[in-house]
Amino acid sequence: MFPDLARDDVFRLETARLWLRWPRASDAGAIHRFCSLWEVARYTARIPHPYPPGSAERFIYGAREGNASGRELTLVMTPKKGQREAIGSISLEARGGDRLTLGFVLAPEHWGKGLTTEATWAIVRAGLELTPAVEILANVSVDNDASRHVLEACGFTIAATGLKGAPARGGLVECHTYRLTRAAWAEALEPWRSTFETAPLGTGPLA
User: Fold this and answer.
1) How far apart (Å, rounded) are the C-alpha atoms in residues 97 and 1?
2) Angle, nearest 10°, between helix axes 55-69 and 28-35?
3) Angstrom distance (rounded) from CA 61 to CA 55
4) For the chain: N or C, fewer Cβ within 10 A?
5) d(C-alpha 170, C-alpha 166), whole Å
6) What is the pLDDT of residue 30?
7) Where in the numbering of this chain does the N-acetyltransferase domain appear (predicted)?
């Protein structure tokens, strides 16, 4: 679903405080550190706890393969200032020919700063500008207030509530399914444009 522009590993997105780029082998240590934390894994469907050795490397390989194929766009978040190691990840995965699903995690020491909202704006923009998707969906545990706040700040609304498969949590979890259509995104973006406007989509070295 994603075009050639996003299938090259120099593709990146920029926000006010973040670079979003393809994961690299050198990110394995940072990814392992935050994915090993229960407070990160607990609300995800796929991150096991404890986090087995080699899982970060497998995640990176799978993300790069998925990006190269165009069926997903998985990026790591890195701060523009200070150490530029990965502090989280965010992804869009194709579901059928006209929908994308969103997922994200962020290291706890960076919670409460609005970084996930910045990253979500950037990747939602990429998904809706680079693909023919008519909507983006996200499944969120009903008690995951922080992720719900991020989605609602970005214009997502609850479309359904029900049980969803969460293999890493051992079965089914009650979730809200959030939805963002193209029209809703355009409407939600306007009051936030000056805060979360991203640079033109493109490629090139990180500044």
Assistant:
1) 7
2) 110
3) 10
4) C
5) 6
6) 98
7) 17-157
Q: Any idea what the Cα angle at residue 138 is, between residues 133 and 139, rounded to 5°? A: 145
147, 113, 136, 131: which is closest to 45 by C-alpha?
A: 147
**Beta-strand relationship, 99-106 and 135-141:** parallel
What are the structural domains, with CATH classification, of the chain?
A: 4-196 (3.40.630.30)
For the chain, the C-alpha Rg in angstroms (whole number) is 16
> At 116, which helix (H) or strand (E)?
helix 115-130
Assess contact for 30 and 77: CB atoms under 8 A: no
* pLDDT tens-digit series, residues 104-144: 999 999 999 999 999 999 999 999 999 999 999 999 999 99
pLDDT 10s digits, 168-194: 999 999 999 999 999 998 887 766 555
Predicted confidence (pLDDT) at residue 26 exceeds the cutoff of 60: yes
Question: 173 by DSSP, 3-state: which?
Answer: strand
Q: Please, how many CA atoms are within 13 Å of residue 143, restricted to the half-sphere of its CB?
A: 5
